[in-house]
Design a protein that fits this description.
The structure is a homodimer. Chain A is an alpha+beta fold and about 550 residues long. The first copy, chain A, has 9 helices and 34 strands. Chain A has 3 domains: about 15-125, Immunoglobulin-like (Sandwich); about 155-435, TIM Barrel (Alpha-Beta Barrel); about 450-540, Immunoglobulin-like. In chain A, the strands form 8 sheets. In chain A, strands 24, 25, 26, 28, 29, 30, 31, 32 and 34 form a 9-stranded antiparallel sheet that branches. In chain A, strand 7 and strand 8 (about 120-125) form a beta hairpin. The first copy, chain A, starts with 12 loop residues before the first strand and ends with a strand. The interface of A and B includes residues 330 and 344 of A.
Chain lengths: ~550, ~550
């Protein structure tokens, strides 16, 4: 035990970070969240309630002091939240953040190895969430996601690995571009990136020390993490989930954050979880290309999952992204499979296999990027990336966007953010709108092993995607299910590239075919598809009486 | 404890089952193995050494008596084999079977809960294996298999679920057909089958009792198991692995073997493992379509894997086959993934995904069958099944054959065996010969995510398969690897359906292309492929000087 030093504490102040997502963000306007000016004893459900305490600043508070709090609400049946970890934020300030999941009165009491931080009590009130606050996202219906308030969440993510490590104006541009984009998830690195197109020092580092590689790994730099939090909150205001990548291999021993000793790794994880888990839009992505972090073994990653699952009281989504070697995604600590596969979403049948294997949501978080790099992973045509998104959806899975046009090497969206130049985002947005109007349970394969083009909700809603086929027409036919007749359907013709939806007149009455595997209509009516690629059909059940 | 009864024991006799695979078996000649006439104190390495002891016949010896033996050989460094379980074989006879893995002198001593079976000692000599005895098969090079003597084993299996439950002459016909076939593995059920085309009572049942469903599940019927063992030994003589399916759902509550209580399941597993694990060609397939055995939960299957892994001293291959729900094949108790997927091998890219997921051999043990059933799983054209076999191989995996021509409903090969009528076996045999002449390490994808047609061994051996494409020609080009030049290759053109291999004259000299992803030749020479489907190329490195 270190000697107990004298100190004063000034105030217990409460900070409600509203984090309310807004539909669009003006590019020239910084979102005013994550600032400590908003003191209040009220907080929204799923908002961030913060306790700030003054405590010792000498010694090394990052490792010397343990601090946590227990939270209870008025409802005796409610599960109390115990051992919410606090953290040291520099300058003698300690904070404990809490995301309440129930409305009404709450109380807390702190526990600490330091007497002056121990036994602090307080009360606050949790009010209804704002309109665009749906709570955190979790797994729903085995293969899909939903917000805590019941709203479905369909991930349509993009990739801006190092956007928070760019100049301030670049970060503003990125947020403005995201606000106008169809994307509701961003994959982003915590640590800075040293890699092709990325050889600049950031303005702030996660540890105390001297760049490039003299760090005191026992002392975090609060300024770095405050910036990270502000960025996460800004995304939250845009309704965007922050898929935070906790480790990555793009360091090349420049800073060495890819090969810290195990105790530093573990301390970093506990610190970032204590700081950020109260932000409802946080997802934990343990790594990008985990298998390229050569200094770590698979058991390190197992341990990281355990630390996060234990320390994060809210069970935010947990995943790990691979290069060539797929992690054991079967582990119950992995909430969804975050997969890099350069070919899986070229084919619905490929993309679907991992659903059967893992029985959890499959997010193809790297499927190659729209762009014009020399590298094969960065030169997809926009049509190809849109095709891959549709294949992922028809497979009952999800894909993530990335863009790598090299014209301006300091603003490649995939890493720096700034400006989206590609043609795929608009089409991805078009797809997203279709999915959000579809069944809230999510899109699932209808007759796998037989009909790879058709997905949806059995008996009610079908998307039929023709991909690169160029059919002149389509004869009405659907995979059979045990349904009572009449079986009446309406059909919309979708041009996925030109973004048009054309409803057909009339209703298709169909019956079970003799082979009992398909439904068909009596006169075998056809639908004109114009011989073009990238066409789809939306077939919706009509339940009114004939 | 039950009272100890008086009895006599007659003899400790040793039975060496030679099990030597022979190239072909005359249809009219029963293989003379698994008979107790071959008494000897010598046994081949990987043969079956058997101790037979007389013991109590009263009470219920199947549950009352524990018997095992420890085996040691002269080499002090050799691992002793302890706790080899014995079993009761009826009529007061107890047996302990042992498969020695080292040549030289061995000793054993028995342990039993019955004094008269306890402390029995003996010696025997293990001699060199016969020419066609390569030992048991285990996993090799992560994705492949090999015999214990180092010979590669490439599974080219077929499916005769209920062949041992047919009339005697049918079983002889099946063995004769197998002897002439290209197949070196048979998937077969232990319990009889009650299903479409399979509604006959077998001549013998696994338990004492009265058919169809009055069984004493605590008393096995040794006759049933002796017949099973003889069948396994007969396959062994043909060089065929017996992929024994321990549970299956094709019972429809007729006999009830699909929903026995847990203690009966476990006792059955321990009994069959004690009886059969000394047979070197046994593989344990826990189930066919395990997820259709509705009375069992996944934890039952977990327990079954544990029982078999614990009781089988030789670690025979262990797998479990699914219908729709894939078991957790990541478990270290699963030696290889035995997968039913009706579509995975339609596409190399699909088939390959499970390699990345499981990092163990992938055997697609049900890929639909060549036949003409109304059911979609049983009406593949022969071309389609051969296509699927090639896709599996190019993906670095394996497929299993099945045949379902319904002309004679009591001799559908898939279940009854008897006669192979299809056109795929000859082509599968042609493929097997090619693979057996290929790299002993097995065929692996060369440039996944980019080139799905090419597999083999980097820098040395490539198979390029065009499947249903009908290219007129092919421009010489290979995925690049870090190889020192000169890079000289010879090319054979393979017609996989017409079973021809045409070597091309001359050598292709190639260099790295500017994009660094491919090798190509200077004048871009082409190879004529005739515009036909199902063509392949074999490209082999030439190491001699130019």
């Amino acid at each position: 035990m270190k000697p107990l030093h004298n100190f004063t504490y000034r105030i217990v102040y409460l900070v409600a970070l509203t984090l309310a997502p807004v539909a669009a963000l003006a590019a020239d306007k910084q979102p005013n969240v994550a600032r400590e000016s908003a003191k209040s004893d009220q907080v929204e459900q799923w908002g961030v309630f913060e306790i700030a305490l003054k405590g010792p600043a000498d010694g090394n508070p990052f490792v010397d002091v343990e601090l946590s709090a227990s939270f209870t609400n008025g409802d005796a049946k409610a599960v109390p939240r115990s051992a919410i970890h606090g953290f040291y934020d520099g300058d003698g300030t300690y904070r404990i953040r809490f995301m309440p999941d129930k409305q009404g009165p709450w109380e807390y009491v702190t526990t600490s190895t330091r007497k002056e931080l121990d036994g602090r009590r307080g009360k606050f009130t949790v009010i209804a969430p704002a309109k665009n606050n749906h709570g955190p996202v979790s797994v729903r219906n085995t293969y899909h996601f939903g917000y805590a308030d019941g709203t479905p969440y369909y991930p349509f993510g993009t990739t801006c690995y190092a956007w928070i490590h760019q100049a301030d104006d670049a970060q503003k541009e990125t947020l403005a571009a995201l606000a106008k984009s169809p994307f509701n998830k961003v994959r982003m690195l915590v640590f800075p990136k040293w890699y092709a197109y990325n050889r600049r020092e950031p303005s702030v580092y996660p540890f105390e020390g001297t760049p490039p590689n003299h760090w005191d790994l026992t002392r975090f730099n609060p300024e770095f993490f405050r910036h990270l939090e502000e960025s996460v909150a800004q995304l939250g205001e845009l309704g965007i989930e922050a898929d935070l990548i906790l480790f990555h291999p793009y360091d090349e021993r420049h800073w060495g954050f890819d090969h810290m000793p195990a105790d530093a790794d573990d301390r970093y994880l506990r610190y970032i979880v204590a700081r950020l888990s109260a932000y409802r839009n946080v997802w934990w992505s343990l790594a990008n290309e985990y298998d390229l972090l050569r200094a770590k073994s698979e058991s390190d990653w197992d341990r990281f999952f355990e630390i996060i699952a234990r320390d994060d009281p809210y069970g935010h989504l947990r995943s790990i992204h691979n290069c060539r070697l797929i992690y054991n995604q079967t582990s119950p600590l992995v909430t969804h499979a975050s997969i890099q596969d350069g070919a899986a979403v070229e084919d619905v049948g490929r993309a679907e296999i991992l659903r059967d294997v893992y029985r959890k949501p499959i997010v193809y978080d790297e499927v190659k990027y729209e762009g014009d790099l020399d590298q094969r992973w960065g030169n997809l045509k926009p049509e190809e990336l849109v095709f891959r998104f549709w294949n992922a959806i028809i497979a009952g899975t999800y894909a993530t966007h990335g863009e790598t046009y090299k014209a301006q090497p300091d603003q490649v969206w995939w890493s720096h953010g700034r400006v989206l130049q590609g043609q795929s985002p608009a089409r991805i947005g078009f797809l997203r709108k279709i999915i959000e109007k579809g069944p809230p349970e999510g899109i699932n394969p209808i007759d796998p092993w037989q009909d790879m083009r058709t997905a949806g909700k059995r008996g009610e809603y079908y998307l039929i995607y023709f991909g690169k086929e160029t059919p002149k027409d389509w004869t009405f036919e659907l995979p059979a299910t045990k349904l009572a007749e009449p079986l009446d359907f309406r059909v919309d013709v979708i041009d996925t590239w030109n973004m048009t939806i054309t409803p057909l007149e009339g209703v298709f009455h169909c019956t079970l075919r003799p082979d009992k595997y398909r439904y068909a209509c009596e006169n075998r009516p056809t639908v004109d598809l114009g011989g073009k690629p990238y066409m789809a059909l939306r077939v919706t059940r009509v339940h009114s009486d004939r």
